[in-house]
Amino acid sequence: MTTLKTQMTNDVTTIFLNVDEFAETANYTPKGGEKILGIIVIPDFSTQMPTDEIEGEYFRKIGEFFISSADVAEPGKGDIVELISGTEQGEWILTELIEKENTGAAFMAIRKERKTIGHVNRGT
Question: Which pLDDT tens digit goes with each residue over 84-106?
Fold first, then answer.
């Protein structure tokens, strides 16, 4: 019989970090480091913070990312997660560590989008 902690770790790995279920594939660039292709992240854009805050000529989008420790051992503030598919694709900058555990780390992240007439350009 497995312990609850072991079962929860297994569930995170086999269900939540599964790209056929909740996870998405992304690229990861540590601050001052080389890009890592094809990592697994769980994005969450249901945050209670405002998601369309205006800063000068930019919209600031806010989200959360859970980053698998199997792909990135020590994610950090200022690192970039680049979602390569989905409605929120683009570069997200990790801004604050929310929680770290054996299976990975959760971070708040922002993405800036330049305002233009008629649509929003992704990126800075």
Answer: 877 788 889 999 999 998 888 99
Q: Where are the beta strands (DSSP E) in 5-85?
A: 24-29, 36-44, 53-55, 58-68, 80-83
Between the CA of residue 45 and those of 7, 32, 37, 57, 86, what are the distances in Å? Answer: 26, 26, 22, 22, 12
Question: Cα separation of 103 and 105, whole Å?
Answer: 7
16 within domain boundaries: no
Domain span holding position 58: 24-122
Which structure tokens are listed for 23? Answer: 């996870």
Tally Cβ neighbours within 10 Å of residue 32.
7
CA–CA separation, 120 and 13 (whole Å): 35
The span from the CA of 108 to the CA of 31, in Å, is 16
Q: Which amino acid is located at 53 in the chain?
A: E
Could you tell me if residue 51 is inside a domain? yes
Residue 9 lies in a domain: no
The whole-angstrom separation of Cα 88 and Cα 100 is 24
- Predicted TM-score of the model (pTM): 0.71
